Amino acid sequence: MKDLETQVVEFGPVRAHAVAAVEAVDLIARRAASGRGGFVLTPNLDHLALSRRNPEFGAAYDRAFLSLVDGMPLVATSRLLRLPIREKVSGSDLFEPLMARCAADRLRVFFLGATPETCETASRKLRAQHPGFELAGYDASHFDLEARPEAARDALRRARESGARLILVCLPPVKQLMLFRFEDDYRPAVGIGVGSTLAFYAGEVPRAPAWVSRVGLEWLHRLSREPRRLWRRYLIEDPQALPIFLRMAIDRARGRPLHHACRVVTSPLAEPGETP
């Protein structure tokens, strides 16, 4: 597959590429193999709400090599407004096919942010399912990105020094900003924010049934499982993204463009900043 000509949809300051899951796996694997580095983000309602409080999210999305919609509210909005995104491509959806591709291509992987038990369980399962899979290492250290940014930078440097070509960042969205701030510290690897994906795969956190995810109620399933931890996020913070959708609807009604063409580049010969 050549570098991909696609469309970018603008959800306020957060951009998302209109690509299918199979395309995303190929793009990420080829980018990792190229040594170009870069990072992948997976926007959902939480990211949109955070973008209204933290302008740095917009800058991160401008820089991301690839941005994949991880949330049915964004997909539903795209469909309603006749925009090109038609399917959810979350970190959890991508995880197994991407790990299979890494095993086939001999791309070493690093886990950052999950517990040692989660990392070891996931690694055993992956090696059993994909004999070529190689975990370069993992780092379960905790850090405050604002109070101790050097700790985050050091973690990414350790990931780079392990020889990994793909770094899975198993941390909340606000901490995934480390991929944007310290991009030069983990190149040539590609970083991707995957949140709780590793815990799902290791069987430590039950994931919602597929039909629940398809109808956009995965948030309700997670809230019912972890109400004390997630109630504020889902009931107070995430609704703060609703004005973005209202603004999009108004702009659409007025004929203002909400998407544009974009070339997703994986070539090692390309220059930085290739996804305008």
Structure characterization notes:
The protein is α/β, with parallel strands linked by helices and 276 residues long. It has one domain (4-264). The protein is 47% helix and 15% strand. The chain is built from 14 helices and nine strands. The strands form two sheets. The protein has a six-stranded parallel beta sheet, with helices on both faces. A hairpin with a 2-residue loop joins strand 1 and strand 2 (14-17). Helix 1 crosses helix 5 and helix 12 (218-225) crosses helix 13 (227-237). It is globular.
Termini separation comes to 20 Å
What order do the SSEs take from the amino end to the carboxyl end, as H and E?
EEHEHHEHHEHEHEHHEHHHHHE
Give the biggest beta sheet. Answer: 6 strands, parallel
Shape, per Cα inertia axes: globular
Q: Could you say which structural class the secondary elements and strand pairing correspond to?
A: alpha/beta
Number of discrete helical segments: 14
Mean pLDDT: 89
* Total number of domains: 1
Secondary structure: number of strands: 9
Instruction: Classify the beta-strand content into a percent band.
Output: 5-15%
Radius of gyration: 18 Å
Low-confidence stretches: none
Oligomer: single chain
Strand order of the largest sheet: 4-3-8-7-5-6
What fraction, in percent, of the residue positions are helical? 40-55%
Topology:
Layout: E1 4-11, E2 14-17, H1 21-34, E3 38-41, H2 45-53, H3 56-63, E4 66-67, H4 72-80, H5 91-105, E5 109-112, H6 116-129, E6 135-139, H7 149-161, E7 166-169, H8 178-181, H9 183-186, E8 190-193, H10 197-201, H11 210-214, H12 218-225, H13 227-237, H14 242-253, E9 259-264
Parallel strand pairs: 3-4, 3-8, 5-6, 5-7, 7-8
Antiparallel strand pairs: 1-2, 1-9
